[in-house]
User: What shape does this take?
Amino acid sequence: MDAITCIKERMSIRAFTDKPVPRELLTEIIDTAKWSPSYKNSQPWEVLVLSGEKKEGLSNLLLNLFEQGEEPTPDLTSPTSWPAREQAQIDNLFAMRKEATGIDLADPKIIAVAKKANFKFYKAPHAIYLFQEDSLSSWSLFDLGLFSQSLMLAAHARGLGTVPQAFVTDYALQTKEFLNIPRSKRLVLGLSIGWPDLESPANQLRTERMATEEIITWQE
Ligand SMILES: Cc1cc2nc3c(=O)[nH]c(=O)nc-3n(C[C@H](O)[C@H](O)[C@H](O)COP(=O)(O)O)c2cc1C
Assistant: This one.
């Protein structure tokens, strides 16, 4: 698969088959992602792969905290409002999803259902957490973003599905404690990874993008 096809075909996968992914393949994908560029080649990425009982244990912890009404305390603050340009894209996504599935992501009851599905890692056989020292600058956060896209593209090129999940960092303190990640690290992103169930309705929605003319300005 060439790079352009891979970038354009990748999409978030929210339903997986039960089949586990061999450790060698997960290793290959992370080994590929590490070739991402980073500020001064500092490589500010740390990766934890979760499977089996440990993944189930974390799922249960997150679900319990949510059910108990525990206030989320992610290491990266969640946005409370968006500029109009970006808010319009979010509104478009929500409208598309409502039309395609009847699910209204603006409805608090639906948000609760969506959060629980996230905390179950969409029943994927594996979850990956990306983290780094909290004292690193914003450039390192940027670098970890590059790493995560490389990881998702490498997975797609090998027929695997992924979804990046900010939600699974909601209870960062408790998650780090459960996973023996030192408090000095910031938990940046979780991802579910596995073989995609391409027949599932959850995987039928293809998101849109702004027109290219809307994002480019040429100056000569
Ligand atoms: C930083 C980040 C956080 C995200 N958090 C979540 C999440 O918590 N749950 C989820 O289902 N999708 C999450 N997504 C997936 C986005 O909704 C998705 O990437 C976007 O709608 C574009 O769709 P696509 O990935 O299929 O191209 C996240 C994506 C990114 C980049």
In short: Residues 138-157 form the longest helix (20 residues). The CA atoms of residues 32 and 166 lie 23 Å apart. Residues 11-12, 14, 93, 118, 163-167, 189, 207 surround flavin mononucleotide (CB under 6 Å). The first strand starts at residue 46 and ends at 51.
